[in-house]
Amino acid sequence: MDPDNQIESANRRAEEISASHPKAVSARYDQRTGRVVIRLSSRLDVAFLPKDAEGLEDASQAQLEDIEITPSGFGIHFPKLDADLYLLALLEGFFGSRNWMARTLGSAGGRRRTAAKASAAKANGRLGGRPRKIAKAAAETN
Q1: What's this model's pTM, rounded to 2 decimal places?
Q2: What is the pLDDT of residues 62-78, one digit of tens each?
Q3: Domains of the chain with bracketed CATH
Q4: Measured between alpha carbons, how far is 33 from 55 in angstroms, rounded to an integer?
């Protein structure tokens, strides 16, 4: 595909996305609730805690007060943090890269305390803890 066709194709896709998805028309940090609030072209407000978004998790109030909307309306930029968020990913519920989301969700799951988990750990402890891994060759000889 020649470069001109690629550009035309990309422009068509951008027009399709622009026509079928809401854009950000304003963005602000709400000090009272501690949330970033984005007003969409559909008149819906989307709000989230900065700690739930990659690049904003350790941000101070002062760093969050300055928010810019990208020219396409599909991104928001935090100049004091040099952090960007893609609006369509926010709307899909993804607040960071795949690795960041996996690390964050895995960490939360590992801290989860349930009666079943406590009971299993107690029973496993009575048996001497986690079973040792047996080398494949040793297992085959038995």
Answers
A1: 0.59
A2: 999 999 999 989 999 99
A3: 3-104 (3.30.2020.40), 113-141 (no CATH)
A4: 19
